[in-house]
Amino acid sequence: MYRYFDKHGKKTLAIFGAFLMVAFLLPTSGLNCGHGGGTHGALAGKPVNAADIDAAKYRLESLQNLLVTDPRSGQPESAWDRIFGFTGDPAAAGRLYQQLNDNALTWFLLVSEARNASSLPSEQEIDEFFTTQANPQVIVQHRPTLIIKPLKNESVIEDMRQSIRVALSVRDHFIRSLSRVKISQPMIEQVLAERAQEVKARLAIFNADDYAAQVTEPTDDELKVQFDAFAATAPGAFDKRKNPFGFGYRVPDRVRVQYFVVPLAEIEASVIKSKDAFAWEEDARFYFDKNWSQFIPAKEDPIDASQPATQPATAPVKPAFESVSEQVYQAIRKPLIESKRRVIVNQINEALNEDYVKASKNLTATTQQIADASAREQKLGSYEYLLKIRDDVQRRQGVTVSVVNEGSLLSENDLRGKPGIGLATLVEGSVRDRGLSGARYLFTNLKQLNPGTGIAAGGRLELFQPAQAFADDAATYVLRVVEVDPSHAPQTLGDVREQLIKDVRRKNAFAKAVEAADAALEKAKASGLSSLNQVVYTTDWFGPNSMRVPGAPLTDPYADLLVEPIFNLQRGMTSEAELPRREVIPAQRADKVAAVELFAIQTDVSTDSEARMRLMAESYLSSQELQAANVIQTWFNADNIATRVGYIRPDGSAPSKGDERPRSPGSPFMP
Hints:
Number of strands: 16
Largest sheet: 5 strands, antiparallel
Distance between the termini: 42 Å
Radius of gyration: 32 Å
Helix content: 40-55%
Structural class: alpha+beta
Strand order of the largest sheet: 9-8-12-11-10
Shape: globular
């Protein structure tokens, strides 16, 4: 599969970087098809039947169910992600899959178009899935229970080969469509000059904090204006024009949680107590005699550089049991500890789930009584109910388990900040979900916060239903949500008054800093910025790809924000005679302002790097032209696909061509 990319190199990868960063626009007016029999329009004079669409959808879904090994990470991924996840962003490929799966007619038309264009992958490329992919595996049962088995049945393999053949045909046909983009040499020279451009500048930094004492208390009118402008905005929602400070007072999604904490140390102690010391040593020595080679210490590289890097191979020497006994004990106890951890977690989950299911038919409030009168007398949402489950677990498993009943509503960030559970990650569920932050998983899966189906697993977890288990190095956590407060604007100004006062003062202090920077540049017109009676930094040479401004104070994060605006001061210049250029550059995020004086420009492309930079310039221009001409979005637009292949709707009409975005203007002149 990588042979195509090996051939076309970084240029193609850069283009696909643009491909997967755009939002796909597939389902549009008139192309959604329902299930059932009948005709779904016509293609090339032949009717499109439900069976045709179902067959196409079957191929699509089989690609998601076939798991292969990513040779770079060694982790399993779906064949679909393998084919369409060129940039290592399976989420983007997943969005494309979801939209095509929701509108299988569009996928059917894409497959038909590729077939008619004779876009056929080589059999060798298909073979790679079944030879170099370390034995592909197939999901034979869907969520919530996944059973993954090696793919050995020849008829199933041949069926999967056909699905892969179809997907590669669609992908390769799209790749060939990219050849329409033609990049001229003058365009490459233009970008090459820009990428090789470097500038020097002087700057004086004005900190808004230094002007806070000059700011008076905000009036009630100022607070009201501030509140009305940002009450419905989430905090930190930065917008260069509308909200450069990132103001926002919207209350985030919040939940109240209860959870069990199962300490790993408790489980380990319980496992150790299950046998006496003599029995453990007997088991350890037996295991060691069978597997002693895995306890041979790794050889260290020779410290003396004069010694050969490799030594003649010698037969491994069995170490003494006493020297590795601790590692042996760990090896034989580890599976027992994991097994007991699972037993405890399953016991808690089963108890919670059993009562949740009983109550879920008429569950309308957090205090809903358990339906089964013979069950526990407590209410489902009570702390006492959880203590009963805890006591039962401790009695049966001999492990101390604790219960946490959070008394307040927590946002996702609040939950992340909680000791223990805040850093826990998912240890169960699908392969893709494992390792996900527990807090992130919870807030994206809770139905009350994600009422739509969305993509991935959104909207599946109910109130009182136990979530997937989370774990950190110290414990496993079984959590449930018992109360939800969806995001909303604060009811009154008084709810956020203190924050409003801070933000208005901050904004007014920043305005004072801008005034000081303006005054500094006005003085600099006569004799330059360096003549001012304050600290002025002179930068070293830097270009548009620099990580920070060299010469600015390295401890100041503001230096990161200055690279682009300072470099852009030279745009539109026709000669160095127009230097120096001066400008005030605000950075509201950092509460700082810079008075900047650009005084030198140079363009330097070395012979060694010119070929590489030309390739990068061409790749950049290709992706820009594709986006400017809207090639990518128009290619995968459902109506445009239908127009290209000549599809006719059931009512006899033809889809209209999707709107095209106007091309963006060219780059400014660069010396």
